[in-house]
Structure formats: structure tokens, C-alpha cells
Amino acid sequence: MTDQHRPHTYEEGTRAPGRADGEATRERLLLTALRLFAQRGFSATSTREIAQAAGANVAAIAYHFGDKAGLYRAAFFEPLCEPQAQAEPPWLSHNMPLAEAFAHYFAVFVEPLRQGEASRLCVQLRMREMLEPTGLWAEEIANDIRPLHEALLVLLMRALELPQPDDDLQRLALCISALGVHLHVGRDVADAVAPQLHLGPEANTKWAQCLVWQAQAMVEAERVRRSTQPEDAPLKPRRVRAGARKP
Q1: Which of 24, 102, 188, 203 could serve as 212's disulfide partner, Cβ 3.0–4.6 Å?
Q2: Cβ contacts of 30 within 8 Å, gap of 6 or more
Q3: pLDDT-based confidence at 90, cuts 50/70/90?
């Protein structure tokens, strides 16, 4: 919201705060709102509760965000949560190797991990938004998730030399994106079974490398499958004989 659209009344003290104080207040409100909205949802959280928990006046919410809906939107969409997908990402360059392109693609998923608790709250907020929709999740799918998916399809078509995406390529794209999504949705599980994977200054870098390796392996497996399996043949799981040991 630009300054010209903000209300001119501000009741936190006798005068409007300086820029540094104002930005600090906005940040506290945003972080507090993210936590409370993630825990309780939009309807069950009041602006008074948010302001009190943030140590700010209720009028500060109107000043910085317009209203409760504006604050919720900011907590949901701002870079605090995740980088926004680009309609024409630079990693679609024809000259970029597949591994480098995947590294740029997975940065959308890895970078939020560097924000610690805020990243967890953003995932929690999206889970709650799915259960108690306000329309923002559908908006994110249309404006961020779908364009990122379509860009990934372009990259995969180029890597596999396909003229257009088919259903199997759609499945491959969704499986590759699931690698990144699971970093966040499955974080609690990972912390429970292998907490060391998220410890140390190099943890996120190692995750990024692992995602690239796995995605490359999936593309290569799809390349082999297409070269050895008749077109339109159904995907069949490998059968294991009774009593036989699984590999």
C-alpha cells in the first residue's frame, strides 16, 4: 500500500513514528500476524489480539496494512514466506545446463528454509488456508504455482526433446516439484527421523544439491523409459515374488 492510500490518522503516540520505528512496527505486526493466523486461522484471530501481541496500537494495522484482510494478505504473500515465481524465469535459457536450471528452480523451495521459524509458519498458514479458504490459496496457485509448473514443463520438454507435454510429463513435473514441497510439508517428519539433516551452515546447500541430483535422475529415468517402452503403454509397478527379498 502506498503512502497516499494510507489513512492519515495514527494513534500510536502523539505523532507518526519515524521511518525506522514505523518499519520495525510493521515487521512486528507482520511476524505476529503470521504466527497467530497460522495457529488460529483468519476468522478466529482479531486485530486487537495481533496488535497486543506485537506491542503495537490497533491503529498501526490500519496505517500499515489497511485492515485485517490486508494484514492477512501481507502475511500470506510477502517475501517473508517465499520468493514469487516468475512468468519467464531466467533458468529457461537455452544455453543453461539442466543441472544449473534445476538449481535455480529449487531455489524457490530452498531459500525460504533460511528464514527458520517463519518458513514453518508459512507452511502452516497455507495448510490452514486450505481448510478455511479465503481465496488466497487459489490466487497463489493461479499467479505463482501454475506459472512455475508450466515453466518446469518447458524445461522438461527441452531436456527430453518433446514437442508438447503429455500426461507422463505432467506427472514427472509434479513429482519433481514434490521434492521441493516436501522440504517444507515434511519438515517435522525429517526433524523426527533425521534431525541432523537440517543442522549446520551447509544444510540448505546440501539439500539443494540433493534435489538437483534427484531431479536429474528422474529425468534420465523418464528418458530411458520412453526409449524402451511403447508409446501410451501403462506404467506398471515391478512385481515381487512371494517370499522374495525386496532390493
Answers
A1: 102
A2: 71, 74, 75, 78, 80
A3: confident
